[in-house]
Amino acid sequence: MIHLDPPTSALLARLERFAADHDASAADRSQKMLNLERPTAELVFLLIASASRRRVLEIGTSNGYSAIWLANALRVSREDTLISIERDPAKAALARANLRAASLDTRVTVLEGDATALCESLAGYFDCVFFDADRVSAPAQLAALLPKLTDDALLLADNVLSHPGEIAGYLAAVDKTGQFDTLTVPVGKGLHIARRRHAL
């Protein structure tokens, strides 16, 4: 179990209850929060914290649940940065409110818009990217981000086991680069981990 400060832990617990209740009653999938399962969030936290990541990009903010985990994993230096992309303005506004409640609003930048277009426009560098949105467009986002990744960049992608058909293109794109060591962990809906090998 990951131990965060009491206010953050209480906020995350509230968000988990809210997402479970909301998603159970939401008829339209696009309106669901679709937050990470707690075990997946904890694994992502450990991966980022233990690897001392400094500049992280999250694709798929939703209500900010995972961004709170990511930002807490980055709390090593005031220079650490998290940028999170969300295409739904209502979810982006909710995420900003939750990040303020977690006292992280000055540490996280939430961008609204098309993720692929934003990935093309963002300046590097990034040493970690978390893909947790539209799995079908992830290969195009990866292509745009590759030149902006550090030599030891960490790529994380959720829903590998729950949506294998949709994420197959992304997995193939990662393998095609020939630059990453990869592993799929059967936690939650399946987390794919890829670490870029240092150039020889």
Which features does this protein show?
Rossmann fold; 7 helices; globular
How is this structure best described in words?
Keywords: Methyltransferase, S-adenosyl-L-methionine, Transferase. It comes from Caballeronia humi. With 200 residues, the protein is an alpha/beta fold. The chain has one domain (6-196): Vaccinia Virus protein VP39 (Rossmann fold). The protein contains seven helices and seven strands, in the order ααβαβαβαβαβαββ. The mean pLDDT is 93.
* CATH superfamily (homologous) name: Vaccinia Virus protein VP39
Q: Major sheet: size, sense and barrel closure?
A: 7 strands, mixed
Biggest β-sheet: strands ordered side by side in the sheet: 3-2-1-4-5-7-6
Number of strands: 7
CATH topology: Rossmann fold
Topology pattern, helix = H, strand = E: HHEHEHEHEHEHEE
Poorly predicted ranges (pLDDT <50, ≥5 residues)? none
Q: What is the subunit arrangement here?
A: single chain
Topology, please?
Blueprint: H1 6-25, H2 38-50, E1 55-59, H3 65-73, E2 81-86, H4 89-101, E3 108-112, H5 115-121, E4 126-131, H6 138-145, E5 149-157, H7 164-177, E6 180-185, E7 191-196
Parallel strand pairs: 1-2, 1-4, 2-3, 4-5
Antiparallel strand pairs: 5-7, 6-7
GO molecular function: O-methyltransferase activity
Organism: Caballeronia humi
Keywords: Methyltransferase, S-adenosyl-L-methionine, Transferase
